[in-house]
Design brief:
Arc Repressor Mutant, subunit A, alpha/beta, D-Maltodextrin-Binding Protein, domain 2, globular, 12 strands
């Protein structure tokens, strides 16, 4: 397998057709098709199926696509790190973090990291598992800080626990359900929850179902800021990490309910792809997050 063959193969997946891939790579369709056929011959397997409907990947093609994306991303990161060592290029990092880390720790970490790597270019994204796991597996992220159950993660993902995150039902000050002390007292309430896979809201809902506690109406919301506004401006209840409720900005106007019992805390941890060496700048940044999160724990 050669670099240009893998790039051609991955670009077909990204573009959706050979014509579009050839245009993106600035190649003729015949040159790109030749690269794909050489790749299939080298592997001894059909990778693509062509029909009037377009391009489809065989089972072998799906396996190669997953590995090829990671391989190409790893090579690109190697080039970037070598340029960094030679001081020929600024370090480039891509990380994902949960909103609670962004509000509590990120500003201090970034300020300290800027002193260590003043020219660094950093891409930030939100640490929802539905996007974090694919991005880590394909090498698009250097690392992520997210809430997760280690037992439910793919074996290719390394998870380093940093602290436990408690969460409570909460609503606006003056919410008619604030006085409830049992789940029965919340009958008829409406909720706004993040129910994305692996989220604390999804864990909460699963726990309630196991307890036999029915919830009222639910508004699904993946944005913590929209959730907070819904809770502040309506009678909707949410399930919020304690450190967010205690934050002077996020928690303004919100109050935890005294309902018991509560589900167990979730673990916030550092996630990396196993056996994928992190760059020196990424390790510096990860160490700053470790120090601050453990200190606050």
């Amino acid at each position: 397998m050669k670099d240009h063959q893998l790039r051609a193969f991955v670009q077909v997946a990204e573009s959706g057709s050979i014509r579009s891939a050839a245009r993106t790579l600035q190649l003729s369709q015949s040159a790109l098709t030749k690269a794909l056929r050489e790749l299939e011959a080298d592997l001894g397997a059909e990778l693509l199926q062509r029909s009037w409907r377009g391009i489809a990947f065989t089972d072998a093609g799906q396996v190669l696509l997953k590995r090829a994306r990671f391989a190409l991303t790893s090579l690109e990161k190697a080039r970037e790190e070598i340029s960094y060592l030679q001081r020929a290029a600024r370090p480039r990092l891509s990380i994902a973090t949960t909103p609670l880390v962004a509000m509590q720790v990120l500003p201090r970490v970034m300020s300290e990291f800027e002193k260590l790597e003043p020219t660094a270019e950093i891409e930030l994204s939100e640490g929802l598992l539905t996007s974090v796991i694919p991005d880590l597996l394909q090498g698009r992220l250097d690392f992520a800080l997210a809430l997760a159950n280690e037992k439910e993660l793919p074996r290719e993902i390394m998870f380093e626990p940093l602290r436990e995150i408690e969460a409570f039902p909460a609503g606006r000050i003056g919410n008619p359900f604030l006085g409830a002390k049992t789940w029965a007292g919340l009958r008829g309430s409406r909720w706004v929850l993040n129910l994305s896979s692996g989220s604390q809201g999804q864990m909460f809902l699963t726990w309630l179902e196991r307890q036999g506690v029915p919830l009222g109406g639910i508004t699904r919301c993946a944005s913590p800021h929209l959730m907070a506004e819904m809770m502040r401006r309506t009678d909707a209840l949410g399930f919020c990490p304690r450190i967010l409720l205690e934050d002077a900005y996020y928690g303004a106007g919100l109050q935890a309910l005294r309902v018991r019992p509560l589900p167990s805390a979730m673990t916030l941890g550092l996630m990396m792809r196993d056996r994928a060496p992190a760059s020196a700048p990424a390790m510096k940044l990860a160490e700053l997050f470790r120090a601050h999160l453990r200190q606050r724990g």
